[in-house]
Predict the 3D structure of the following.
Amino acid sequence: MKILSSEITPYSIYINRRKFIKGSVATAVSLGISNKLEGSHKDNGLKYKQFLDDGDKLNTFEEITTYNNFYEFGMGKTDPSKHSDNFNPHPWSIKLEGLINNPQTIDLEKILSLVTIEDRIYRLRCVEAWSMVIPWQGFPLSKLIDIADPLSSAKFIQFETVFRPEEMPGQRRRILPWPYVEGLRMDEALHPLTILSTGLYGHELLNQNGAPIRLVVPWKYGFKSIKSISVIRFVEKQPGATWSITAPSEYGFYSNVNNLVNHPRWSQNTERRIGEFKRRKTLMFNGYEEEVAHLYKDMDLRKFY
Ligand code: MTE
């Protein structure tokens, strides 16, 4: 799939800025996407599908960057693209803290010098029952966990979005308890499908998608994929997560995509793929069952929703 020049032009400011994704990688990625559509990929011995269903196709750059949830910039779907111009994600650093051997504040550039950026085409399934297919660039979260070098007592990881009410208008209102936080169990965090993304469609992330670095956990509802991460905390006990703190009966800590467990206000059985008319059936674990079901084999997923 080609990126139309009309889609690229409005983002030229970003592209011309200091680049996190080197030009050659970005070009290779945009050219390489069509070859990857039906392919599968070997990663750490795990065979994961780059593309899951015959009927799936990539959402457009336009769709992915104008239909967003990012409450720090407002609650409407177009608020993040319209109201995030004052957010400046450069330079950026992430504080690694808690139960680790190497606590530090690490520059994003330093992280990027230590990892290899890969492309991953994943479905994103929002708990609101819409979905997209997004060609991300990023690297396995496990690489950053290696840098932090957790103690054996670290069983969970909590992530925190930056708190900058002066740049994020939504944070000036108490829509949610700020900063936005999320969490994963250590084995989920180490799973090869779990990535930190720094770009999509070969461009560095736009502010509305969580610049300059966000989590992507494709088998969980989209709200687990926390944006603009500034702190990663290694902890012993299951940490707080914004939506499960806000409405515990509606959003659990695990929040695996599960068509058998409905949200109290809507069914999770089908979804609306952005750009499509007919609803699709929602797949267990968003179609990644083969890769991740073992993580939950002894758990009652109705209880641990
Ligand atoms: N991260 C933060 N910090 N704030 C948010 O409001 N929204 C979540 C998630 N990450 C959100 C967030 C939700 S509900 C979804 S569906 C995805 O981001 C949407 O990601 P996208 O806009 O890049 O598609």
